[in-house]
Amino acid sequence: LAKTTQPISMDSYEGQEVNITCSHNNIATNDYITWYQQFPSQGPRFIIQGYKTKVTNEVASLFIPADRKSSTLSLPRVSLSDTAVYYCLVSSYYSTLTFGKGTMLLVSP
Amino acid sequence: NAGVTQTPKFQVLKTGQSMTLQCAQDMNHEYMSWYRQDPGMGLRLIHYSVGAGITDQGEVPNGYNVSRSTTEDFPLRLLSAAPSQTSVYFCASSSHTGTENYGYTFGSGTRLTVV
Fold it and tell me: Which of A85, B2, B87, B94 could bridge across to B31 with cysteines, CB 3.0–4.6 Å?
């Protein structure tokens, strides 16, 4: 399983764009990149998933360079409610998920 | 559509007691799994199942048993509770239908305390 590295914590202010970068140097050809969000006392929630280039949904964008050794989750105009832990995971079709410690994002007024 | 339902939400056990954490999903997902999360840590995989009748061990399986007799249900059994099993337990499910979306749906968790 590809190991991921992401910052332990990030701080931002309301209305700013937040970019969280994840490193996954050993990503395999069949691996996808998935990001989850977790609020305290809740289970993780799927945010976005991609294989290469750029993926955008109503919540976030995911940028993946051509070599796929890293990815960046972009949250536009964050609000206080975006304060959470964000996990970057790399996995293939039938592989299990391996969670790291994630990135604790704190959004202040 | 309830998604993934876990019961109970909270439980206190005495050391040596046994109990079953229930997990049910109504999305006809093939894949189900159990994770535990300790303070300040990411989730660690306990057991998982790729379909009814098939289970396998994850990263931290000791002290836990699972079975998958139906697609919908995936109970986690603690055989003899120990204080080290104090944790928050999450059940998750996913569909492997060949689409790109491998997103997992997680339950709301069971907070277990062993005294």
Answer: B94
